[in-house]
Structures are given as C-alpha cells and as structure tokens.
Amino acid sequence: MRCAASTRRRERLQAELTGLLLALYDILSEQTQPHPDAVAKKKVGMQYRYEIDALLAKNYARDIDLSFLARALYLSPKRVAVLIQSLYGKSFRQVKVEMKLQVAKQMLTETDLTVAQIAEKIGYRSTRGFLSAFVQMTGMTPSKYRDRRR
After folding, report:
1. How far apart are CA 6 and CA 38, in angstroms?
2. CA distance 39 to 13
3. Percentage with pLDDT > 90 across the chain
4. pTM (2 decimals)?
5. What are the CA-CA distances from residue 43 to residues 37, 86, 90 (Å)?
6. Among candidates 86, 105, 98, which has minimal Cα distance to 143?
7. Which residues does 96 contact at the CB level (< 8 Å), separation at least 6?
8. What is the spatial distance between Cα 85 and Cα 67, in angstroms, rounded to a whole number?
9. What is the distance between the alpha carbons of residues 20 and 27, in angstroms, rounded to a whole number?
10. Secondary structure (DSSP) of 31-75
11. Rounded Cα distance, 108 and 150, in Å
12. Residue 75 has pLDDT above 80, yes or no
C-alpha cells in the first residue's frame, strides 16, 4: 500500500510540475511575441512618421512650428512634440533643422547656387545661421562639403 500511495503522490507531483512548466512556457512565449496592441501602435507611429516627413519635406523653406503640424495631423501641439521625440529620438527643432540641411546638402552637390542662395532657399534668414547649423551637423563648411562631393 505504501508503494501505491508513493506512486500516486509522485504522479500528482509530476502533473503539477508539468502544469507549472506549461504555464511558465506560456508566460515566456507571450513576452517574446509582440502584443497586438504594440504592433498596432508601431504601425500608427510609422504612419505618423511618414506624414511628418512629408510635411517637413514639403515645407522645409517655411518657418513652420508644432501648431502647423498639429493642425495637419489633427493632434495637439504637445502630443506632436511627444510623438516626434518618440519616433525620431530628437526634438521637433532638431528634426526640422536636419531636414533643411539634407536639402542644402543636395543643393550643394547638384547645383551651382551660392551658399547664400541656398541658405535663403531653405528658409534661413541669415547666411551666418545657416553656416553655423551646417558646420554643427557636418563638421565642415558648405563650401568644403561641396568640394568633397564633386
């Protein structure tokens, strides 16, 4: 009898252990697979990033602000600021300046416009401000950048 009770107890412990292992497996597999809400949020975030990129590319020469983007995206300016920080890892101002300077780089390599003309075309009020931003981003002057790319 003692042997039968011992066997039943061992079987019960094995069943409990198996149940615990299966529960642990379920928990771990849930953590490794993205939650459907997370996938949906990422998709929405990427959609916003596409829209923000398009708006900035279209309006790089204008002095747009968060209110402009907020109206275009039907969000509050604060929400847009948080969204930009989470999508780009940078502030709105940094993203806007980088967009302008990307266009400037393209103009420097593809046109013969002067640095002052490029600064004006991308929305800088002064050539000095443009030069400062360009050097800070690239580590070289626009003229040097143009010479190296040609």
Report:
1. 48
2. 39
3. 65
4. 0.68
5. 10, 13, 20
6. 105
7. 56, 60, 64
8. 16
9. 11
10. HHSPPHHHHHHHHHHHHHHHHHHHHHHHTTTS---HHHHHHHHTS
11. 9
12. yes
